[in-house]
Amino acid sequence: MPRQTMMAVRVHVFGGPEALVYEEAPLPEPEPDEVLIQVHAAGLNPADWYARAGFANLPEAMRPSLPLPFTPGEEVSGVVVAVGPEVAEWEVGDEVFGLVRFPQLDNNGRGYAEYTTAPASSLARKPAGIGHVEAAGMPLAGLTAYQYLFDHVRLEPDKTVLVNGAAGGVGHFLVQLAKTKNAQVIGVASGRHEGFLRELGVDRFIDYTTTTVEDVVRGVDHLFDTVGGPHGHRFLSVVEPGGTISPVFYGEYRRERAAELGITFRGSQVHSDGPQMAELARLVDAGRLRAGIDSVFPLIDAPKAHERAEQGHVQGKIVLRVIDE
């Protein structure tokens, strides 16, 4: 008799990491334009712990409605085990990775599970030279960086780019992708990340724990702030007139003053995109892009992975391993 269930991590009641329950769940069925993936690894993202907590970080009137129970996880790497009748680009046995239905919110099967479904158009072939753990750490943060740089800012060669929070998930991809345009990259992070960021190509490193960025930097064409917060406006003096600021997380930037200085804001919500995933894979194969992995946890230890994430100071990505490689 065909398998009807799988093991998954689900949330039945919003709360802390303890709200993540490892349990038996129904095996999802792909829609006609979807594939069924046996998940080998799934990446963690801030969206996961925001959803787990019922988006308590947002004002109540702004909180999205999320049906319960749900399985977190937007980014996966694994193997296709079934295809819908409208799918022509994938076959059983293909190794794929991608961002699943993002930013849609629902209780369809997601990444923290042994199996998940995904629209065929959201996937790309996993680069042959890396494992599923590294591949699972790429989709959301990698696409965020890619779309900010090339869809919104439309980065031209030889510009000066500053990345605040350069060692984090989105930040370390921004560094690498900006270098593909020969940018001069200034990376801001705590001192323990300097070696990591130098390896990724940062031209100038600033340890924010010992140096005030706005005191020592001027002439930035494009600033990407992956930290946000109430003091984002401190960067206005850093950016050239005609330059841009791209907030990845919400911050207070005194936008009226920014407009007076000729500074514009660029960015938007990241979304699933198979062809762009394929471009990230091409850069991986060319040796120009990699996912830094902070830590790896087995699926059953998803609560511990969330505890690690909430400690902060993550270098690269946290990943859940579903199948040992």
Characterise this structure.
This protein is α/β, with parallel strands linked by helices and 325 residues long. It is 23% helix and 27% strand. The chain folds into two domains: 5-139 and 270-321, Quinone Oxidoreductase, Chain A, domain 1 (Alpha-Beta Complex), CATH 3.90.180; 154-265, NAD(P)-binding Rossmann-like Domain (Rossmann fold, 3-Layer(aba) Sandwich). Strands 3, 4, 5, 6, 7, 14 and 15 form a seven-stranded mixed beta sheet that branches. Helix 5 (194-200) links the parallel strand 9 (184-189) and strand 10 (204-207). The protein is globular, with a radius of gyration of 20 Å. The mean pLDDT is 94.
How would the blueprint of this fold be written?
Layout: E1 5-11, E2 20-26, E3 34-43, H1 46-52, E4 75-83, E5 95-99, E6 115-119, E7 123-125, H2 132-136, H3 139-152, E8 160-164, H4 169-179, E9 184-189, H5 194-200, E10 204-207, H6 213-216, E11 220-225, E12 239-247, H7 255-260, E13 264-265, H8 274-285, E14 293-298, H9 302-311, E15 317-321
Parallel strand pairs: 8-9, 8-11, 9-10, 11-12, 12-13, 14-15
Antiparallel strand pairs: 1-2, 3-4, 3-6, 3-15, 4-5, 5-7
Helix pairs in contact: 3-4
